[in-house]
Design goal:
Blueprint (H helix, E strand, L loop, with lengths): L4 H15 L3 H5 L3 H19 L3
Length: 52
């Protein structure tokens, strides 16, 4: 099964935007680790937007 290229680009762009990491550094992460960072960033953004 191949991971969708569009989804991969979204994940990389999201992490790169928030953490300012390089494309290569983000792609070096294992898929579950990259998804964990995406989820954590989303939680942080949600807390900030809710004023917590």
């Amino acid at each position: 099964m191949t991971y969708a290229a569009d989804r991969l680009h979204e994940e990389v762009a999201y992490v790169a935007y928030h953490f300012h990491w390089s494309w290569e550094s983000i792609l070096d992460l294992e898929h579950p680790d990259r998804l964990r960072y995406v989820a954590e960033i989303a939680r942080i953004n949600t807390r900030i937007s809710q004023g917590r």
